[in-house]
# Entry
Amino acid sequence: MEFYKLYVSIDGGAFQILDEVEPDQTFYLHQNILDETHYEYFIRAGNQNITSTSCIQGFTSYYPDLSEFIELENVSVTEDNKVVLKLLTDTANYALGYRVMRKSS
# Structure
């Protein structure tokens, strides 16, 4: 195949070209997704003589509510040079995970 064109429909609207990617690209990140919005996608692959179209796949986006608080209760360094953090988080909201970052000096 010479090309892969990615198409998107937003909330049942007409499909539009989202992007065109190289044939060896196996991953695509659709950014700036809107909350509580339905997206449907398909891919059209082809060359100058023939095209092939995938099935349509869709999802509806939902942003979780943000936590009201996250408290760092304790930090300790273990004997094997690992850092252990104890966090107290708001359990009223669902979170898949937290990213803890450190500033290097």
